[in-house]
User: Which sequence fits this backbone?
């Protein structure tokens, strides 16, 4: 890195010297000036982009007066954690520890189901030549464009007939079949794995299931990690499904609780709302920082929306 | 040599497999996709058919149902003013939010398509709002930012400007949601960035030699080569735009005067607040048809403006 940098500087210096010697280009054409302008512009716009998020985190640490008097600041004059203590108490005698437990159950199990089922289904589509394969794959891609609104009403009626309202079944059961986005992504990935290993395993007497578990699955790791990250995000942030099916506050997920919390406390305790909102974003940002590379590649290669 | 020895039996094995285990392959294949197939039938196909049937009834979760023919559609198109408010709000939102988002995405992608240092950090920073964009936390934050005593009015006050009731004004409320959407251009940006990386460097170099300036290079090289990516982003963002729910539900609740009553939100209100599920199903089906037609239209026109490199064909 260091060497590269000095080399870069040298070439840059010699280039500028060279151009100066030839016929001096205008100052704004010089490489260092352009680099400075570039970084200045980009840093200014990125700061503007993330200002609201930083503001949210900063405000969650402000005291009850400062939140009004020093509203626009990111860094509080005095850092206080009262908001987190107050917010964590939740509402109706139910603290946020319950909501976090529910959210982790939903996002954890939901992700586990979605990703493992998607991998199995994807293997079927990618490596087994069965009649109707193209047809069902096409149908699966079509479901990507399906508005959920045409499904939720009959689904709701079905689940209510089964007596499953106010349980986690309606949230988790549909995930046992995987999700079209991830199936598609993993199919693309498996297609990139060379066939030779499959064939070798076939000679050794491996069945299709054996090939999947012994040959394909170990190589799927990057695709599965990407799928798991997105699945976790979408489930963690999911609002509509919990809103439809979970009525009693004891079962609320964090998103559902945040909405009720912010409605109830209204204008009175912004600090606590900010604190709980910030806290709900922490798992998302931790994963984002740890797995950024997987995320970027996942979106770039499959066009998944974030 | 060893390669040859190894490969011969492989081919034989493959051949034998193709001939004898055709039926077995079908069984195994359907076994592998069965999780998806079962959930597809139970939670997608059957519900879609049922919601089509429901749209010809006055189904109410407590009162049961009667067959009412096309009454739901008649009510929707000719009697229900709020329905048209919802259509108007949704169209306005999609018409402004989707292009804004795509323009930002492309502009920033071009800005980041460079080998300068620190680009990956900038990319993460631009993407950060999108990673939390769908969350309730951000929607709640947005509501507080534009509240009467919120952040925007605080800053306006510091600048000596009068404060504005952003969320209560019929002209402004929807713009807070459009701004929220435009702020989250991260995903299309990353897809554009991947597309830009595919554009061969030599094209720009030879254009430079021919004396083309930046704008000419953008119009004549970048845009045409990027059309497949633009097309993909456009379709996905259009569909997502029509289905926007959470943001409107939290930030404005459809108010004021239904100016932010997005279609998906109105379906929810009818289906799950007044429990007119027959009527809500009819609205959902109209949405399905409109989204299908729009997508088909975008696909159909795409042959005129999408450039695919002459490849395998």
Assistant:
């Amino acid at each position: 890195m260091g060497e590269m940098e000095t080399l870069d500087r040298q070439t840059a210096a010699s280039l500028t010297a060279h151009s100066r010697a030839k016929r001096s280009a205008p100052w704004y054409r010089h490489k260092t000036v352009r680099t400075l302008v570039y970084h200045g512009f980009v840093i200014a716009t990125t700061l503007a982009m993330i200002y609201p998020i930083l503001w949210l985190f900063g405000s969650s640490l402000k005291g009850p007066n400062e939140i009004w008097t020093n509203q626009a600041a990111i860094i509080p004059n005095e850092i206080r954690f009262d908001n987190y203590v107050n917010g964590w108490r939740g509402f109706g005698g139910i603290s946020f520890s319950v909501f976090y437990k529910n959210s982790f159950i939903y996002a954890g199990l939901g992700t586990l189901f979605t990703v493992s089922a998607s991998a199995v289904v994807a293997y079927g589509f990618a490596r087994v030549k069965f009649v109707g394969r193209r047809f069902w794959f096409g149908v699966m891609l079509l479901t990507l464009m399906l508005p959920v609104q045409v499904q939720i009403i009959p689904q709701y009626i079905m689940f209510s007939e089964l007596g499953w309202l106010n349980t986690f079944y309606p949230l988790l059961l549909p995930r046992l079949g995987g999700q079209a986005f991830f199936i598609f992504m993993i199919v693309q990935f498996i297609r990139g794995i060379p066939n030779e290993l499959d064939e070798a395993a076939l000679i050794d007497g491996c069945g299709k299931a054996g090939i999947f578990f012994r040959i394909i699955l170990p190589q799927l790791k990057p695709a599965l990690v990407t799928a798991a990250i997105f699945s976790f995000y979408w489930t963690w942030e999911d609002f509509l499904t919990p809103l439809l099916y979970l009525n009693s506050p004891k079962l609320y997920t964090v998103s559902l609780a945040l909405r009720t919390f912010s409605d109830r406390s209204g204008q009175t305790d912004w600090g606590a709302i900010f604190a709980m909102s910030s806290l709900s974003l922490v798992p998302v940002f931790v994963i984002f920082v740890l797995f950024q590379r997987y995320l970027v590649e996942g979106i770039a290669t499959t066009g998944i929306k974030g | 040599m060893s390669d040859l020895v190894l490969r011969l039996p492989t081919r034989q094995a493959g051949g034998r497999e193709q001939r004898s285990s055709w039926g077995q392959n079908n069984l195994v294949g359907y076994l592998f996709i069965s999780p998806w197939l079962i959930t597809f039938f139970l939670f997608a196909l059957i519900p879609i058919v049922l919601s089509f049937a429901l749209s010809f009834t006055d189904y109410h979760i407590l009162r049961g149902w009667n067959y009412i023919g096309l009454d739901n559609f008649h009510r929707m198109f000719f009697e229900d003013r709020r329905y048209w408010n919802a259509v108007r709000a949704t169209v306005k939102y999609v018409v402004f939010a989707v292009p804004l988002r795509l323009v930002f995405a492309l502009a920033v992608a071009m800005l980041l398509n460079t080998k300068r240092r620190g680009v990956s950090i900038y990319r993460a920073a631009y993407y950060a709002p999108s990673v939390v964009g769908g969350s309730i936390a951000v929607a709640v934050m947005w509501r507080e930012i534009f509240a009467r005593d919120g952040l925007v009015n605080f800053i306006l006050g510091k600048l000596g400007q009068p404060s504005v009731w952003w969320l209560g004004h019929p002209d402004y409320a929807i713009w807070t949601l459009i701004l929220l959407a435009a702020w989250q251009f991260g995903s299309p940006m990353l897809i554009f960035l991947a597309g830009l990386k595919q554009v061969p460097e030599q094209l720009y170099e030879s254009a430079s030699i021919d004396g083309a300036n930046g704008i000419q290079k953008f119009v004549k090289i970048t845009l045409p080569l990027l059309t497949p990516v633009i097309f993909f982003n456009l379709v996905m963002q259009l569909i997502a735009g029509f289905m926007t729910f959470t943001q409107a539900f939290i930030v404005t609740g459809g108010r004021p005067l239904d100016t932010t009553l997005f279609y998906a939100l109105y379906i929810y209100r009818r289906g799950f607040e007044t429990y007119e599920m027959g009527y809500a199903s009819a609205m959902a089906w109209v949405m399905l048809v409109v989204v299908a037609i729009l997508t088909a239209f975008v696909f159909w026109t795409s042959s005129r403006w999408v450039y695919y490199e002459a490849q395998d064909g």
